[in-house]
Structure formats: C-alpha cells, structure tokens
Amino acid sequence: MKVSRGWCLASVLAASVATLSAAQAQEKGCILLKTVAEVEQAAKDERGNETKRLVAAEKVVPGDEVVYTVSATNVCDANADAVVIDNPIPEHMTYIAESAIGPGTEVTFSVDGGFNYGKPNALTMSNPDGSKRPAAAADYTHIRWVMRNPLKPGAVAFARFRAVLE
Predict the structure, then answer these.
(1) Cα separation of 103 and 118, whole Å?
(2) Which end of the chain is more exposed for a tag (fewer CB within 10 A), N or C?
(3) Of all helices (H) and strands (E), which one includes residue 105?
(4) Is the pTM of the predicted complex or chain greater than 0.85?
(5) Residue 99 DSSP symbol
C-alpha cells in the first residue's frame, strides 16, 4: 500500500485498531474486533446508473477521505453485556463531522487522547489565553461507541466513521 508524502497506510490503519473496554467481554475475550479502511469509488449499476461503492484503501493521498468500519463479533456462547468500543482517530487523519455511526449505539468523542468522552456540544478546548471554545470535529482524538443492548453469541455489530488524510 502506498501513500504520498511517505505516509504508509498500514501505519494509519495500525493506529486505528479499535480497543475494547467492556470488562466482561474483555476478560473472556468474547469480542473479536476488525477494522477495515476503504475509499468510495464511482461505479455504474446494471442499468448504467452512477453509484458509489467502497473498495480497499490501497492508495491514499492528502485530501482523500477514508471510511473506517469496525466490526465487533461476539465469539462466545453467552451474551456480551456493556460492550464499549474505543477507537482513536488515526494519526495524520482528521475526523469528518457527524460521520460516526453505529446502529444501536451511543456515540461520544474525546478531545484529550481518550481520557474523557462527551457529546460534541459538551466538548471544549482551551485557547492559549486560557479561555474556552467549543471543540471542532478536527479536535477529536477518539470515538467511543457504547452498545445499548447485549451482543448475542455469533452476532456482529458495526461502527463506522470517515476521516481525511492531512
């Protein structure tokens, strides 16, 4: 995989590997996480209509948008309760506002390296003079998805976000 300016997409992907913080699932190793990086590509359907599809992100240059999909699979024989997925915004990537989704999840963000999370309207940043300003999507360092319901045995949950290579 190649990326201009010496950025290796593999290192960007390695930084994006999601971490699981649900105590029960983590202790038992019940949740298998996989992160995939893709880009949108124009295509035509069987009727000749213009559509978009996701393909592996083999070459990314500054300004390109990457779609990250995190899948969480419950590989145990019991429900996984209180599943939480914390995912850093990959290095050299800028999160695209309002792009994080995850059916059946509550999505929150961190601006301090994953120590504290909140909804976008509750996040602030400090200015050099000590005053506060609302955090912008470009300030986000991590995304957290909290699953509202247990993940049943064999079930797969998906979370997704978009980011742009700087």
Answers:
(1) 18
(2) C
(3) strand 105-110
(4) no
(5) -
pLDDT, tens digit, 9 for 90 and up, residues 53-101: 999 999 999 999 999 999 999 999 999 998 999 999 999 999 999 999 9
At residue 62, what is the residue type? P
Nearest to 91 by CA among 19, 32, 17, 4: 17
Gap between the Cα atoms of 17 and 90, Å rounded: 9
Contact between 159 and 85 (Cβ < 8 Å) = yes
In angstroms, what CA-CA distances link 77 with 83, 118, 153? 15, 32, 5
Which parts of the chain sit beneath pLDDT 50? 1-27
Closest CA to 145 of 101, 81, 80: 101
